[in-house]
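Reviewers asked in the last cycle whether our approach scales beyond single polypeptides. To address this, we selected a multi-component target totalling 1012 residues and predicted its structure end to end. The input consisted of the following lines:
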Amino acid sequence: MENVSFPWLSFLTFVPLAGVVILLFLNRESQGLMRGVTLVCMLADFLGSLFVYGLFDSSTAAMQLMENHVWVREWGISYKMGIDGISLFLVLLTTLLGPIVVLASWKDITHRVKEFLICLLFLQTGMIGVFVALDLFLFYVFWEIMLIPMYLLIGVWGNPARKLYAAIKFVLYTIVGSLLMLVAILALYFIAGQATGVYTFDLLKLYDFPVPLYAQFWMFLAFFLAFAIKVPMFPFHTWLPDAHTEAPTVGSVVLAAVLLKMGTYGFIRFAIPLFPNAAMDAAWWIGLLSVIGILYGAWVAMVQSDVKRLVAFSSVSHLGFVMLGMFAMSVQGLEGSILQMVNHGLSTGALFLIVGMIYERRHTRLIEEFGGLSKVMPVFAVFFMIFTLSSIGLPGLNGFVGEFLILLGAFKVESFRWYAIISATGVIFAAVYMLWMFQRVMFGQVTNPKNLGLKDLCAREVVVLMPILIFVVWIGVYPNTFLGPMEPSVKNFIQQVEKKRAAVLDMEKVKKQSAADSTRVVLNSTAVQYR
Amino acid sequence: MIQIPEINLGGISPALILCLAGLVVMLAGLFVRKGAATLGALISLAGVLAALAVNSPLRALNKPAFSGLVALDAYSWFFNVVILIATGLTILTSIRYLADEGMDLYEYFVLLLFSAAGMMFMVSGNHILVIFVGLETLSISIYVLCGILPGNAKSGEAALKYLLLGAFSSGLFLYGAALLFGAAGSLSLPAVLKYFQAGSWGPMAVIGMGLLLVGFGFKVAAVPFHMWTPDVYEGAPSPITGFMSVGVKAAAFAAFARVFFEALPALQVSWVQILWILAALTMILGNLAALVQNNIKRMLAYSSIAHAGYILVGMVAGKEMGTAGMLYYLLAYTLTNLGAFAVVALVGRKGEANVSIDDYRGLANAHPLLAVVMAIFLFSLAGIPPTAGFVGKFTIFSAAIKTGYIWLVIIGVLTSAASVFYYFRVVMKMYMEVPEAEPAKIQFAPGTVLALTIAVAGVLYIGIFPTNYLNMAVESVKPLF
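The resulting structure, written as structure tokens, was:
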């Protein structure tokens, strides 16, 4: 029906998979060729996504570039994809990081290169699929597929000491949440099907279905668990430091930059619009968890001795901001939240790359081992400084715009006012732990003789970091490029959620009314009899 | 005048062809000195293919034959296909296995074919006694196959344990059938149905039903009737373990569902309650026990118990959707588990020396393709898309949610989350650990490679394009309702 002439989104999703097929036929000795093929696929994917950006009509909130094909007709499962202002930038972020990750791993990963590249490509397919799927079944398939390559990335190429523990912990946490979500998806499918007579997994059709309050509560809970584990929100975050720390550099980059966003994206795309009443009722509590996450992540980051672990805990803190802005449910809050997803992907991704580069040189990440590096590696120091500042939220760089919008959006909402005030201190703590770490690693005298001979960044490494730097500055200086296309979708999102919420409340009122009416009728009739 | 019933062998020809092929193998084996096993395997394969060919007309039929003793319908057709796939794949993997073990035994294939024929009678039995005879035919062949490894104590132990406990459960089954006969006056399923529909059944009939349930529960390895499974699965030759875990299970589930849905719907309220508890226990215990196993065959044995639990969820959900879910699940499980056991047989090498999970360390380095294939089977067992195992779980869970057994589904998904741990543990060994010593190279054989190819292609194909197979399952359960 609404199929576009060229299936752009399928193209984006499956180009990496085509790369997998090519890799399967290449000799495992020819590493350079394999890396080249992977890079070309990732670049093609990125170029494709730029085309998609060009085709994207930023004046409308509707889903665009839709593709819709029947998959399992009897069950109402379709292969349905589409993109709007909310998912557009997450797709772009994913495709941008694709080639960067391949380049970054060029020297880092030397054993089982073939399998490694296959995992990367597979992961790319899964991640893009999650962001463009508009059918709950299709979404779930991509969501689960992604687990396997990530599991292998951590488990095979991770840090030998604790990689197995971290890998299985990551999988178990994620799968518990997602299986409960599957139950909720099925329940929704049947409840909506029984009520409307149309059994479908089509997300856009399910958006229109007002879910009864009682069911909403349980289903939201299941979705919440799945996404909250992925984000990760405060009490569900314990897998993250392990996974991040033990994963190879590129694994951490992909994990931080994209995988975590799938949780926050899941809230915006699925949990909130499908179950608006339950989501709004829970907003205060989720806000509370977010604030705890912001402060807790920051405090724990402060005392880390391992740079990578520090960055990992800073993620918990940053994603707290994302969640806070989202559940404030104001236009600024949401826009900030979506922008902050991209920001976090860029700055934290870059920080993990930076940590990886220093680890490659020194094979340690302990802060105390370093000191005075800025004298030895000036170019490195510049990049590190900029990304550190972007992570803190210095005005003029990307982090500031996102956090500012989030805090503004939260402050405007009555029930979130105090959260905004408390969270603002989180920004200060971020400055404390980041700058303190930076100072200990980069400034002062070179105390450790091992650091004297360190080489500065090579051309490849500069190429890896440069694109991220460009976007960090771009978003910081002129965020409208990014906020513009988002705005119609965000406004429409809030309207839809409010509308559906009111509709459900009306429905429940009618139900109560009719229940009351029927009791009254019964009472009347007994009264009549009695008379 | 004695009325001679119409005899039409056409309906049961798939089973007959298997028996015939078995006899031919037996005869041919007498005249061949060397390579009897290979010849037997080829004849058996031809028999399986011929049986597949003559099986197809059943799909369009829906009628009883032999005075109502067997039912020729799409349901039998579906299970015959599953059984034939299982038999064919087992034969393919057995060739290499027997050569490895240095056993030139054509009897192996004879027994395999006879047990498959028994299974077919079991699935198409429209009369409890026919089901019983089928059950015994298959069981006795399998008892022997379990113990066929000469001089292997574990194999002997497996055979003896299976025989003793199997005989016990057969006794219970038969006792249940007798009680039911005493109450209903007949053991043909339509007659039993009529008896219960009349509405005046006594405790004897209910006890009969309970004993039948125990008998079936034993064969499908549902908790608490699962005690034999780990030991038997561990001791039996790997291809036979694979065959048992899917073939016997499929046949037993087929008869289980046919008897209970076709003859005992009047008691559904009570047996569904029992099955609910059995399913929950089976999923929980099977998965938890599998977590701590270090022998891959024992691990897969407990996993097979757990899978019986998931299939029972489909039976609890009932209706067309739940039953169709069972059928699809069994098809998916057949391909997946046989594939996994083919890998186990390959990696085990001579004398099944390498059946510890630790023996899978570094498999991805030594044999990357084999590791990928095994990983796909394990992902399918864990129910991760886009494999057949995922669609199977999805179908069964959605049927259960539809009928309102949400807690059972929650138990199901939580236990399958736990199952991910032990399936992924093998993946972990294959990809992330290195062996202490370089093990001997694995010798591939064309038969095994073909079996693995079929299994892995099937697992992925029906996982990604499930529509036709789901429809097939839905069509096939129509005769029951």
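The mean pLDDT of chain B is 90. We regard this as preliminary and will revisit it once experimental data from Aim 1 are available.
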